[in-house]
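User: What would this chain look like folded?
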Amino acid sequence: MAFGVHWEWRGFGSISEAFFDRYGVLAYEFGPLMVEDIYIWAPNLEVNLKIREGEEGGLKFKRPFGRDGRFERWVERAEDLYSLPLARQGWEVLAAELAAAGMVLGPYPEEAPGHDQLLFLLERAGCQSVLVVKERGARWWQGPNGRVLVEWSAVEKPQELLSVALESEDLSGEAMGAANEEAKAALKGAIEALQLEREPLVPMNYMDALAVWLEGREIGI
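Assistant: Here's the prediction, encoded as structure tokens.
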């Protein structure tokens, strides 16, 4: 993942051995590592909200910041990761996001809520949760318009499938007009170089995927 403001493309489905041959020569960033995320979903909730165990563990907010065709811009900052049990500051941020989606979280509990209590209170407010278990890793692709983080995930639950995400470098503090265009050009270059349009991937973000899984369906491959 990339902190800050970045453009992103993501697809779910399957990946050929030819892709992994191309991926394997890229500059190593991290992985493979196992991750368990509990994603929080509600019909009008725009923020990508999840509870992660282990590294980068806690309640994490990732906010949409624009869209251009198949590319989405997100903002993801270190201060939007709140450790558990959840302190009052994190509770207030969470309550504001739910209120924007038409839900009421309620007053802060007498004791800071941990993992299980927080999930209970979120579900009581009208949210649904999905456990996503995945193995993930990432490498850097370098193009004339900048670097792109290429992350693959082998999802085990709730559906066995693969995912590829492309993320531009952080645009925070940049002159957004020119930097945005260069970032999107870099994503386009990575898609072409890695031949992702030949892969049986369905372009969607995690919020779209959650909506499919919560309906009891699987993402088509």
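The longest helix spans residues 176-193. If you want, I can go into more detail on any region.
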